[in-house]
Inverse folding.
């Protein structure tokens, strides 16, 4: 690991030097091209201006000196770049030799450290395995206890809810049966009253039967007394016509109705034979 770190550091340093040298070379080359182009333009302009006599010669000499000076600068720069390249190659070889010697010395230490590291890892894994075995047993025991407590709590909660719902359902069913029984009793009593009233109505004519039954119906059905009165007033003529027709067709109809009335209980028979003021509600 140490050698890899050193190699990375050296590689970065060498790349930095190389890129720095290339950038300098590129900058100098660009400056050279720029100055060379400017000098060409300047020389052409001077040659254009100074094309005659001593001025032309002087200008040519000056341009030659300038060119030599520039070539000398360029040669010195090229020599500097060459020296740097040679030093870079030499340093690279020296670094390779140094790396080999360092690897030879550090390999034994690295192997020792690697052995110690592997031994520590094995001991750590062994300790974790032993602790895992013990922890799994303890965790299984704890999970069993927790699951037992949770099941008990859930069963108690479920039993309480089920018992509450069962009691509520039983109460609703009992109340429904009681209400139905009471309604049945009430309807039965009303039906018996209606039956007795119908028998008395058949035993009497429409006008007298209506006058006798209206107080009795008001006592039995206070909410439908007005409705029944209106219905009886409308059905009076129909009953008169029906009774007259039945009397003309069947000669013994009135006698039979009287016999049926006499066969009823004593209270109803008395209620039919007595006036309307003495009528009393008949219960079963």
């Amino acid at each position: 690991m140490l050698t890899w770190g050193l190699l990375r550091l050296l590689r970065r340093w060498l790349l930095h030097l190389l890129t720095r040298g290339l950038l300098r070379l590129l900058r100098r080359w660009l400056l050279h091209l720029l100055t060379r182009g400017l000098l060409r333009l300047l020389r052409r302009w001077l040659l254009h201006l100074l094309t005659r006599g001593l001025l032309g010669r002087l200008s040519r000499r000056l341009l030659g000196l300038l060119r030599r000076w520039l070539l000398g600068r360029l040669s010195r720069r090229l020599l500097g770049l060459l020296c740097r390249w040679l030093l870079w190659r030499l340093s690279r070889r020296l670094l390779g030799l140094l790396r080999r010697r360092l690897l030879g010395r550090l390999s034994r230490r690295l192997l020792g450290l690697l052995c110690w590291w592997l031994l520590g890892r094995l001991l750590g894994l062994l300790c974790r395995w032993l602790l895992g075995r013990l922890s799994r047993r303890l965790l299984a025991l704890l999970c069993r206890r927790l699951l037992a407590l949770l099941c008990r709590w859930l069963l108690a909660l479920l039993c309480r809810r089920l018992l509450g719902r069962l009691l509520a359902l039983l109460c609703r069913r009992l109340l429904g049966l009681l209400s139905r029984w009471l309604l049945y009793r009430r309807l039965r009593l009303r039906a018996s009253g209606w039956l007795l009233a119908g028998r008395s109505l058949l035993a009497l004519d429409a006008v007298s039967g209506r006058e006798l039954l209206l107080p009795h119906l008001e006592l039995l059905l206070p909410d439908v007394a007005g409705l029944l009165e209106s219905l009886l007033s409308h059905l009076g003529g129909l009953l008169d016509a029906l009774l007259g027709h039945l009397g003309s067709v069947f000669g013994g109809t009135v006698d039979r109705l009287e016999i049926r009335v006499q066969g009823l209980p004593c209270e109803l028979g008395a209620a039919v034979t007595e006036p309307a003021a003495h009528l009393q509600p008949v219960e079963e």
